[in-house]
Specification:
The protein is of the alpha/beta class. The chain contains 9 helices and 9 strands. α6 packs parallel to α8.
């Protein structure tokens, strides 16, 4: 195919930026909230919603009832949050999003490093990962993450956008098209700490599928196909402390027990003390006692620990 570059241009306002959780079918939303490592839901992992009370605390799971109904507009993209909250998150979590023109330039560098004779099928199969992905602007570019301006389908520059565009150009029969779309999604990964960002990223990838299907076939995909892509997305975009490879804040102190033998003057006894997580103490990625995150290897159809991929 030759290496394709997609050049950023000023977007037109034809894409809604804020995705409303009330618009999702219940089973789809439940899938997007699922954490495959813990077999629970993703955590808030942010203090920004704690004023709402029980269920919104840092360590609480995000439940559908927390973000639908009267709270259906609670979770918003960074650009729609208050300036004060944006500043706080930048200070607390180093949350700074990248403009689309820069995402495009960096994604172009990725493409330029690929063989010129790579065919479109090989390109779609390429594995890509966005670290600390936030709302995943390097993967899909439904809107500029820094300005909130929507980007038309034909101008999107995310790595997954590029794969889907090639599928749309080369495959026109619906069954084969969906098979290749699954391949594109199965080879697109990202991780994020904060639960609201992770949900926004998952939603953006799912809505991207729906939009490309609508453009290709003039209609929305079936509910079954939406659920299939939602499940892939819920595996491939996961919640993780990227420095440790574990579920955020899952490392913990443990009790060390030392047996002291009896002496002539004292009976045998036990000494107990609290010790920090070994991995945290030694800064050793492979020694943490937290919950190591799982991801899915779709090619071999097996679940693996992310940390085991890191040498």
């Amino acid at each position: 195919m030759g290496i394709r570059q997609f050049f950023y241009c000023r977007p037109m306002p034809d894409t809604p930026v804020d995705i409303l959780e009330n618009d999702f079918q219940p089973d789809v939303l439940e899938t997007l909230l699922h954490d495959h490592t813990t077999q629970r839901n993703i955590l808030w992992a942010t203090h920004d919603y704690e004023q709402l009370g029980e269920g919104y605390q840092y360590a609480d799971e995000i439940r559908p009832e927390h973000i639908t109904g009267k709270h259906g507009q609670l979770i918003k993209p960074r650009v729609l949050k208050s300036k004060e909250l944006q500043t706080d998150r930048a200070k607390d979590m180093a949350e700074v999003f990248t403009p689309s023109w820069l995402c495009n330039a960096q994604n172009n560098l990725v493409d330029e490093a690929l063989p010129e004779d790579m065919n479109w099928q090989a390109y779609v199969r390429l594995t890509c990962l966005e670290m600390t992905c936030g709302e995943a602007p390097y993967l899909v570019s439904r809107y500029d993450a820094t300005t909130g301006e929507p980007i038309p389908l034909s101008k999107r520059i995310g790595l997954l956008d590029r794969k889907l565009r090639l599928v749309c150009e080369h495959v026109h029969e619906s069954t084969e098209w969906f098979a290749w779309v699954q391949v594109a999604y199965q080879n697109t990964y990202g991780y994020e700490w904060q639960g609201d960002n992770l949900l926004l990223a998952r939603e953006a990838l799912l809505l991207t599928f729906i939009e490309y299907h609508q453009a290709q076939f003039g209609k929305a995909p079936s509910h079954e196909d939406i659920l299939t892509i939602a499940r892939i997305v819920s595996w491939n975009l996961w919640q993780m402390d990227g420095l440790k490879g574990v579920v955020p804040d899952s490392c913990h102190e443990y009790e060390e027990v030392t047996k002291i033998p009896a002496t002539l003057f004292e009976p045998a006894r036990e000494e107990r003390k609290l010790c920090p997580c070994p991995g945290c103490k030694k800064d050793d990625l492979h020694s943490h006692n937290g919950t190591y995150c799982l991801i899915h290897d779709w090619q071999d159809d097996k679940t693996i620990r992310y940390v085991d991929l890191i040498k």
